Amino acid sequence: MDCSGCHLKLLDDVVYRNSDFFATWRFVIGGFFPLYLILVLFVPNALALFLVLILFALAARDSIVVTGGPSWKVPTGRRDGVISVASESLAEIPAPFDNITTLIQNFANKSLDIKDLVLLSGSHTIGISLYTSFSNRPYNLTGVGDQDPTLDSEYAANLKSR
């Protein structure tokens, strides 16, 4: 599903707490949780670090050119969009608990079909899933403390024991 470059926007402004990096389902996208931890633990102003790295790349290139060496392009600026708002991610990115009807409709809203749904969903589900994306199933499926009846009872017990 095209989320208007949300994968890149997730890195955009970890300093500003209303960006889509901080949307509810942010850590479902693989690899961003460790990045977030590194940024908040070791970089007081992560956005400034990214800017410094870009400036360093530009300065390195320019110093080589000035001394008679070759030149090359250094990509700068955003190319996926200029707005990053958490509420937009919540509205555009399917939730981990969406049913097939909701998923089909979400994809149709973006002019995508069921084949696109299968291909994109498969490419985003290989690997691990965070427990928060399905923790309601063994404990509180409908809000009254019940377990999902479609969840294997042995598997549910295993999850609860961890």
Automatic annotation (TrEMBL):
Cofactor dependence: Ca(2+); heme b
E.C. numbers: 1.11.1.7
Cellular component aspect of the GO annotation: plant-type cell wall
UniProt key word Plastid: no
Chain sites annotated for binding substrate: 94
Reactions accelerated catalytically: 2 a phenolic donor + H2O2 = 2 a phenolic radical donor + 2 H2O
Pfam families on file: peroxidase
Binding locations of Ca(2+): 125
Cofactor info, note text: Binds 2 calcium ions per subunit.
Keyword terms: Calcium, Heme, Iron, Membrane, Metal-binding, Oxidoreductase, Peroxidase, Transmembrane, Transmembrane helix
GO terms under biological process: response to oxidative stress; response to stress
Record PANTHER family: PEROXIDASE 25-RELATED
Membership in a protein family: Belongs to the peroxidase family. Ascorbate peroxidase subfamily.
Listed name of the protein: peroxidase
